């Protein structure tokens, strides 16, 4: 093998969490659109979720397929069928899940030996794929699923002892902008090196030892941080996003992740009945769950705001379905839509009636909001979400904070973090003030840049071309 006419074969191995799986499926498709053969390794439940999508891609002529491998949930003490982070029963079982994931190494190696791909694109949470790739001389590209900004911040918080600085608020040193954060917003594993912290250290190390890093972002969104990551931190990186923009029809936009708790046409008709920029979309990603008390506060706050809304609700397991205030559904009939468990998010965000997004600041959600030109209300919870909030509110200026300041170490939020009064106030501030309109105008401008980036000759399109050329070269010289 090894000429420019050789069809490159990319092997994708996403982590089993919707926020990691969804963008990687988009990436596999984008690679195939650019002429590569894409093979996706995943476990039975995720394979079921994506099969119809992959069949559609195949029918449109793309060279893309799935290889399904069993997931040893029960062997590691997890409930049968627990194949995704959002179905782990409790925090205590997090490492049962990671241990089960690590067990996939043998099967991964067997597949690698069988199909001899030209490159591996694997998730950050599968650092052992790097060892296997090195052993076989195959370039491994790491996918974190986050922004350049948060990759830069994560590096700062690892290198500098922010906990030793005085006071609660600190300035992140060595970044292109003066970014202020509070210590309470930092992940707990930074302060005390627990098992999760050790795993994150290993992941950060593979950032350097991998072939490079694939970033779901676009240059014009965070140019200073794209440059900083490459030129100051010295990482080899390619930006190819927003990858969600590869979904450009109703079915593709609606069928991402799980089956939605609402018919997409009903949802579109509902939105069609609303004025431009008049509806706020409220969603907290694929894994976080609030307690009934917090959900009740949100319900009261949204009702009192008098703004139209779509609210996606996932609650703590085992709690009674009684979080909605008495008579709520009748009172908000026509003005509010409550979607249980899973919404067709990209379809909703792209609708002209959506004028704001209350988000937990997961990177996919942010980028989908940016791609739709929608301003945000930031309500970060865990992972790198406080870093993303800082990017939105301190660098890009396309959002307002709800005011949460404490990082949580798990996806379940058992108490009231934000009161109904605050929900009402901040929703009205974004949807019905001049300040909100200024933020909206900036968000709209970014929408144009996002769409340009993925078009032919746009910055993301070109960076992917650069990567493909490098991979051709690597294949030519036999890696
Ligand atoms: N998502 C969706 N419907 C939902 C919840 C989430 O389609 O009801 C999608 C969302 O569009 C995004 C992903 O799931 O692509 C969530 O990723 P994100 O990084 O925003 O947050 P995470 O779930 O990883 O916390």
UniProtKB/TrEMBL annotation:
Keyword list, A-Z: Glycosyltransferase, Transferase
InterPro entries according to UniProt: UDP_glucos_trans, UDP_glycos_trans_CS
EC number(s) stated in the UniProt entry for this protein: 2.4.1.-
KW Transferase (keyword) present: yes
GO molecular function annotation: UDP-glucosyltransferase activity
Ranges in coiled-coil conformation: none
The organism's place on the tree of life at top rank: Eukaryota
PROSITE patterns associated with the record: UDPGT
Pfam families: UDPGT
Class of the enzyme per the UniProt entry, highest EC level: transferase
PANTHER family listed in its UniProt record: GLYCOSYLTRANSFERASE (PTHR48047), SCOPOLETIN GLUCOSYLTRANSFERASE-LIKE (PTHR48047:SF45)
Family assignment from sequence similarity: Belongs to the UDP-glycosyltransferase family.
Protein name in the entry: Glycosyltransferase
Organism: Epimedium pseudowushanense
Gene name, Swiss-Prot/TrEMBL: GT8
